[in-house]
């Protein structure tokens, strides 16, 4: 049984821009390919035992059934040696050139094959985020026109979304066939849209319904009537919709959600949006998502740039942690927290749309691997709270098998452990898959 999951991550975004001609690779830009051992040392120094990490998809999945595992073997085996539990992020905002982009209907099957091969090779890995921020990936690629296919229509968005979520579902199925106690931690953006005037209430309501689409489909939840019409009007077929209803795997999932100060939006009556800043905050918006899905929660991403005073990120860390404790104290099972990422990132001031070489100072460490004030604060927070939380509430304990123990339980014990996560026996968990909500 694992303690509360204090976590950080290695940023592995790989979208393409410039009509698909330019690959934006954050692991390369931030020096992780050369400094991965040093980065893992920093994770250990912080006292962190969980790491959001994944091999770069475009360098690993070379073609159908063709893989290059060299970097994955080096890094993942080193994490295993250190007994750091990876939450493996298999697809982060981009696909290999040979797949093209998220409009490709063959992507789900290709990705499921990759997930199956990964799970076969790294049998000791239990925690997965198959596809990171499915909603944001579809929005930025096919509605805003920023990444990958760079399209700007509702039809392109629905096409990208259905392919992305289907790929996520098929990947979960493939992993579960090889590791029955696998746990899937969605990392999905938690959004809210505020009407700026009475005339903006209609557009805001549509956006507040649309924000749930990726998770509704992923968890096999029937969408509301307006969103059903939206999906059907923009190219989803009844057969495609019923695929999601018939593959309900939520009993294997933790609702990982991300929150930044840009996640709340003001909506104009003509549908234009702009950043609202923190209005409701993480705990209130997470209550909305928890009320909809009823799954254990993990705060899977947050950060803030270090500003001129030097304490801006530290204060944001304190605020987000206070929100996590608030959820816990009102009875919402909250199992983990993540400052994302370990090091500073590059060019997120333009959402990776431009390669300007500008540092986003959001890491626990800068790109010279010198600790930032927020890194020191997070290290202290972990030391203060790590041994307190599990003793106070059983809802903060998840049946995670650390890498050092991964060979000590057989498949039946794995399945039993997975079913018990939500208080179900394996037979109950299996039968619940076909029950609609």
TrEMBL record:
<dbReference type="InterPro" id="IPR051923">
    <property type="entry name" value="Glycosyl_Hydrolase_39"/>
</dbReference>
<feature type="compositionally biased region" description="Polar residues">
    <location>
        <begin position="425"/>
        <end position="437"/>
    </location>
</feature>
<dbReference type="GO" id="GO:0005975">
    <property type="term" value="P:carbohydrate metabolic process"/>
</dbReference>
<protein>
    <recommendedName>
        <fullName>Glycoside hydrolase family 1</fullName>
    </recommendedName>
</protein>
<dbReference type="InterPro" id="IPR017853">
    <property type="entry name" value="GH"/>
</dbReference>
<dbReference type="GO" id="GO:0004553">
    <property type="term" value="F:hydrolase activity, hydrolyzing O-glycosyl compounds"/>
</dbReference>
<dbReference type="InterPro" id="IPR001360">
    <property type="entry name" value="Glyco_hydro_1"/>
</dbReference>
<feature type="region of interest" description="Disordered">
    <location>
        <begin position="406"/>
        <end position="437"/>
    </location>
</feature>
<dbReference type="Pfam" id="PF00232">
    <property type="entry name" value="Glyco_hydro_1"/>
</dbReference>
